Amino acid sequence: MDWLYLLLIVVFFGLSVLLVHGIEKLRRPS
Amino acid sequence: MFNGLFQIALYLGVLLVLAKPVGYYMQRVYDGQLPAFVRWLQPAENFFYRLCGTDSKQEMRWTQYAMATLWFSLLGVLAVYALQRLQGWLPLNPQGFSAVSPDSSFNTALSFVTNTNWQGYVGESTMSYLTQMAGLTVQNFFSAATGMAVVIALIRGFARHTAETIGNFWVDMMRSTLYILLPLSVMLALVLVSQGVIQNLSAYQTMPTVETLTYDNPKLDAAGNPLKDAAGNPVTEKATTKEQVLAMGPVASQEAIKQLGTNGGGFFNANSAHPFENPTPFANFLSMLAIFLIPAGLCYTFGSMVGDTRQGWAILIAMTLLFVGFLAVAEYAEQQGNPAFTALGVDQNISATQSGGNMEGKETRFGIVNSALFATITTGASCGAVNAMHDSFTPLGGLVPLAQIQLGEVIFGGVGSGLYGMLVYAVIAVFLAGLMIGRTPEYLGKKIEAFDIKMASLVILLPPLIILGGTAVAVMLTAGKSSIFNPGAHGFSEVLYAFSSAVGNNGSAFAGISANTPFYNTALGFAVWAGRFWLIIPVLALAGSLAAKKRIPASIGSMATHTQMFVWLLIGTVLLVGALNFVPALALGPVIEHLNMISAH
User: Fold this and answer.
1) Cβ of B74 under 8 Å from any chain A Cβ?
2) A29 touches chain B (CB under 8 A)
3) Complex confidence, ipTM
4) Strand, helix or coil at B217?
5) Which of these, B57, B206, B558, B601, could form a disulfide with B339 (CB 3.0-4.6 Å)?
6) Which of A6, A13, A23 faces B538 most closely, judged by CB atoms?
7) Which of B406, B448, B462, B109 is nearest to A19 (CA)?
């Protein structure tokens, strides 16, 4: 089961990175 | 009565007196003007920068700052997860504990890295000393330092003028840890040891009890879960014992940062109700003081860094007034006790020989006043340490911790997170005031524009979405309902509290819920991560946006934000936003419980 929880941790991290980039795009629309 | 009021007044007096020196010290640390008595630590700071290949002079844009926060936290989660899964093969494990289950390791790793310290496990029967020290205690420092770094970045956003950067995450982290958290923790740990808090690496001690104890032992099924009869009551069997195993461990070192960093995760399951964690009234006073010390000081730091200390005092006064209001409700509700017991002839009146009131789940050495005070402090902050069981509070007494968490823990709040939460409310407050008088809102000389309000809205709307959504899913699914030991309104309150505590990064619980299950470990694991970083990211974006703006000098048309009127506006905004989001859910839990209690009477 370790793989499942490690995958979830990486998914949470990935979603957070997307949020950073999404907000930056909102702030500075190209 | 007088004794209780005196203790509360003494607590608040000492706290408010210390706010300025602590805040001034922190401002010096973050501005790089280290006081002489900690300057000898500077080589250690520089050594760590060289070790990590960090250029401490390099400033970061908000996106870089956010990514550094995320990478650092991801590494922390993986390290704590690995320590728990491998502890059976690692040293400093005198009890020979085996690996923690994957779902519990997942939940605990996320929980400690996010400053939540929600504990679905029982510390003294689960975690090795190495896991407690190298995993949990280390994260107590780093998660607190992360919150402090983020608020300092936000303060720089207000203080700077047309700047692209908001500081360097690694420098802010290092200074928070090395110059603030570490020295304070060492001092507090030593004082706690003097009070009787234990600090050792011994194996657990088996001691004979004074008398033979007969008790009801819950029967467990093959999976280790408590058995219930057809009516849903626990099935028990009589058992006797003549000895007791006393858990040992390096408690004082974890206890100090647990309170100072508003982490709250106890070394033992009973947390600060355990005599080895919180042995005396003085230890209890220091614990409560430690929880609010840095959050109160940061208000002064804020005022000082933006060049107008009155701004910091206004925030601190708003926090204090909110705190006193909630404390009054908790103290009153707990001192009144349960009217159904009065009808049965139980004496719940205060007297020379008893605290009176509702003493279920409370330590007699702390009584009503210090239990309700501790509960109000620990949930005003995002601490979550407890010296009494919140699940056993009266409905209105229990509503206070729940509501404070749901307001976003901005009443002093977590280290860093409380102040950045309150500053977001201040942005919302000036926006509302601007709408009312038809002017572009300004706060500290910064125009508050559409992007800033979008970020502030994310910060105040994401938590209710996850709390209410998570609670709704949990009470619909069998996996969520099967963990509830108290069906009905109180069971709903327990689930609502669990999600509120997780999203608010508090960590305390209405503990009549068996949360160490794959469903709750996973759902609450998501909640703690989202409740932490999905708020930190918009806060940092707000910091970046504010830093880039011009700082406009105050004019006759500017709304003063250090006045009594602004303090009340800020308090009103906090209460209004909280009420709009959570009153319906609270009505289904604690409010119904209260009505049931008085109707039974």
Assistant:
1) yes
2) no
3) 0.97
4) strand
5) B601
6) A23
7) B462
